Structure formats: structure tokens, C-alpha cells
Amino acid sequence: MRPDVRVYADGDRLGREVARAVVERLNAPAPADIRTLCLAGGQTPRILYRVLATEYRDTILWPRLHLFWGDERYVPPDDANSNYRLVRESLLDHVRIPKENVHPMPTDLPDPSDAAAAYEQTLRERFPSPWPRFDLVLLGMGPDGHTASLFPGSPALAERTRWVATARAIVEPRVRLTLTLPVLNRASLIFFLVTGAEKADVLRRVLAGPAETAPYPAAAVRPEDGRIVWWVDEQAARSLPRTLLPPTQ
Ligand code: 6PG
Hints:
It is built from 6 helices and 10 strands. The protein is α/β, with parallel strands linked by helices. It has a domain at 4-175: Rossmann fold (3-Layer(aba) Sandwich). 6-phosphogluconic acid binds at residues 40-44, 71, 83, 140-142, 146-149.
């Protein structure tokens, strides 16, 4: 089945379109009172967070929204590399979301493995079912096909029971925390945000199907009972064959 790929001119236009779709998802009628949104790190979603904090500041029902992180660098929350700081600066500082609704990954324990276990406990308190099922998960993708902090060749890719694992990026010494594939693959809806020419070749391989996807963690994100929408800018879409582009393009 053709992947749901939506292409926009640039990161700005893409961020605005994704913001609209995020709000539509969060405000859609649903049996549960609360909504659960899992946030992505990296630079691409910054525009999205800014648009949610400005144009949709008064549209989102913040008291019923709970925010989680898909991954985190193991640094203090005020560190320039912190995904929590990215979201605080671009979103949290500008909206009236109750503090108890914001669930950052802990990075203050001496042993990151303990922090991973602590975050799993946080998720278990929020999600009664055997696995957490987020209403919406935001993910980015690196030029090597990593997503969240699941990097090619990482032992965390093989994790099938823990919800949160420690991980290391190949290019940096820093430890990270990441949700594991079993958790990501139980999301109801996943938005991948992919921008930049440097990702075009890997994006084509990830979307092309199983044969070429062995080394790419983003290709292992295939929700069992959920949907993926790929939000892509023209630079990242430039290697996609017509068969993978939206019919209108
Ligand atoms: C992180 C992210 C990571 C990111 C990709 C894409 O902590 O860095 O979780 O998976 O989404 O590396 O990053 P950009 O959006 O900056 O290209």
C-alpha cells in the first residue's frame, strides 16, 4: 500500500501544515478524556511547536493534553542539547498547560538505566493497558535513518519488553534515552517530519519497502494497528519515485 506522503515547499510550510493536523487530531472526539502526544526532538519540529504555541494557543484544550518525549539526550534540562529545553522554549513557556501534564524524561539520575526504568514507570502510571498507546507520536529521521534515539546497529533496536531504553548515537559519546520499537509501534498515529536534501536518499530507501530497509530504524516503525503520515519537504522528497509521491504531485 502506498505510504501516506505529504510534500511541502519547505520546513516552514511543513511545520504549519503539521500543526494544523496535530490540532485536528488532538481536538477530534475520542472516548478518553485526555489526549497523549509524544514529542520529537531535533530541529525540524521547532517550527511546529512555535505554531502550536502561537496560532493554536487558544485552540488546544491544554488541561486535557499530556505531553511525553520520544527520546532525550542525557543532559540537564537546561542544556542546549536537551529536547526538553527545545520544547520548553518553543512551546511550554508560551501556553497554559498544567505542569502535571508535562512528562519529560528524567536525566538527573546517576545511572541512565535507572532513568529509563523511571520513565517506564511514569508511562505505566498513565497508560493502563499492557502497552502505552499514544494518540499521536511525532518522530524525526536522521540522514542515517535513525528515529527517536534508535540508531542503526543499536542494541536498543532489539528491545521487545522494556518500554524505554538507553542508547548511544554513533557520532556522539553522549548517552540517550529512547522509547523502544514495541512502544512506537503501538501508537494510533505517527507523524514523521523529514526535511533536508541530506535525508532524501535514505527516505527513498525507507519508503521503498522491506528489501532495502535493513539498516534503517525508521523503517522498523510500522504500527500494528495505527497509521503513519510522512510530512516531507521538497528537498527530502527529491529522490522519491512518482509511485511514492502524493497522487497530485
Ligand atoms: C533527537 C531526535 C532525533 C531527530 C532526528 C532528526 O533527539 O535528535 O529525536 O531522532 O528527530 O535526528 O533531527 P532534525 O529534525 O534536527 O533533522
